[in-house]
Amino acid sequence: LTVLNAGRRYLKAEDLSGKVFVTSGLGGMSGAQAKAAVIAGCVGIIAEVDEAALLKRHKQGWLMEISNNLDHCIARLRDARKNKIALSLGYHGNVVDLWERLVYELDTTGELLVDLGSDQTSCHNPFNGGYYPVQLGFEEAKQLLSTNPRKFRTLVQESLKRHVAAINRLADKGMFFWDYGNAFLLEAQRAGADVEKRGANKTEFRYPSYVQHIMG
């Protein structure tokens, strides 16, 4: 319902075939995102750093494909988008790398390859394993979290700023991003990322909440 309503409200589209939804998280509640993309008929690319979560969703049949190669992910995205094929593709890697690759594609080809975007990392708990920084691999980040939590926190906040910068670049070209109620925008703001709404008070964000703007 969230994906369908986002398409209706922001793309003015009842039919999401050929549209691309990019997000992250395939763990608990976020695990439904891959299934939602296919039900809605769009192309869903979902990033996840934990391979166990990817394999679980794939085994359940909720995730159609898995890849750790961004070149392959972009090629599959282009093909499914062009042919209007419903697809759920799990990218085994950090979502910041995925967002930055989409910015690269925009800058080098002029193509905006994503229509809808969100995030379901566990940003309500970003410094204790809920969000993994793009600068490190999954296992390396877990080790740093246990040995130097202060450094881990710094890397998370740097990663959040890169995360938002990429989203902002794509949103400026017409992608529609929303907050999924996971404190992503709040933690990004605390990290110093550019998420504040222009001309509004500091408690308002430039991107809408799915509770008020999409489900409401």
Automatic annotation (TrEMBL):
Domain of life: Eukaryota
Name of the coding gene: Uroc1
Domain Urocanase Rossmann-like: residue ranges: 2-214
Protein name as it appears in the record: HUTU hydratase
Organism annotation: Eurystomus gularis
Pfam families xrefs: Urocanase
GO biological process, one term: L-histidine catabolic process
Alphabetical list of InterPro entries matching this protein: Urocanase-like, Urocanase_central_sf, Urocanase_Rossmann-like, Urocanase_sf
A GO term for molecular function: urocanate hydratase activity
